[in-house]
Amino acid sequence: MQTPKIVILGAGYGGLITSRQLEKTLKNGEAEITLINKHDYHYISTQLHKTGAGTAPDEKITLHIPELLKTDKIRFKKGTVEDVNFTAKKVKLESGEFIDYDYLMIGLGFDVSTFGIPGVEENAFKIKSFRSTKAIHNHLLRQFAAYKEDHDSSRLTFAVAGAGFTGIEMIGELIEAMPKLCRKYGIPVSDTRIINIEASETVLPGFDQEAINFTAGYLSKNGVELMTSTKILECSPTSITLDNGEELPSRTLIWSGGVRGNTLLEKLNLPISKGRIMIDKFLRVKGMDNVFCIGDAALFMKNDGNPLPPTAQVAIQQAEVCGPNLVAIVRGQQLKAFEYHHKGTVASIGNKAAVGKVFGLKISGLFAALMKQVIEARYLFVLGGPGLVIKQLFKVGKPHTELAVSKQK
After folding, report:
1. How confident is the model at residue 1 (pLDDT cuts 50, 70, 90)?
2. Which of 140, 195, 290, 394 shows a CA-CA span of 20 to 30 A to 305?
């Protein structure tokens, strides 16, 4: 009997945790497992705002994938997925190579949704990946250096679109980064502007009023200009046009306005809704017995008829069920239905403050910031045990060798 082949597309939270589950559970020779990812590093996506602002070493954000795979049960393949033939059970890479599978898990993550706003796709910076956020930091450095020469105030006007979870975390890191950058370039902090633009009436839509009030107050205290109930109509390389008639001179728009499933998904012949793959209660693609999908690419409907949000917490919990389900399908056993248990949400506002709710308890300030670090450490523990937590805690050093330098603006 031929050894079954399992192929995992994507080494984000879902792909890596699923891989670790398979490593722990499957016996040697029970299945051939291949993990395919565009890069040979995994980045901690909940920390990307730190990469963008330069407030943490790159090596604290990235993990070398081959080092995370503890055994020889899994083959890592660096490559970009171009297509999948579900009839022939083959994954095609951009290199032209084909990878055969019997069971497939799709965990390709998200793309940024710009809602078709003119100029955003071309001119805004996106919090999407390690490379895209490195481009933000490199751009900030260039703007500070150029300001020393021409004193163009648009260079030091930094706008973040969106005051949801990701936008507020990015704003928090900019608050932390500005004084250090100003000292480095000999520029008064008063010459800089941080502006947060949000279409809704408040920051952190969906959070409770206490968290909203704390966050708005914290931003105000730290000099952030908050523009709620304001939409962006257009973005050029040097300005942002708002629906209140204002044209904001700025060479930096950091976009955190929304996410959608990976655009590759639309090229595949799969059931798609709202840019994400529809899946059943066992995390299988609807209508397919041998293809699973989890994380940001998956659309899992709750009992109330609403989809689960594309968050790291959801991806990790799904992976902890998807791994055992892949083992079960290999062994001809019963699959387990996925049940999501929300454990809370914490949004950081820099290193010294955060807001959120954990196990029903409302938290804010420094205690919430510490709780955010505990949550991050828990993921590292699930991924690699206490050794990985300690290793990342004491990581300092040179930036990752593969960086992206944006030529924008």
Report:
1. low
2. 290
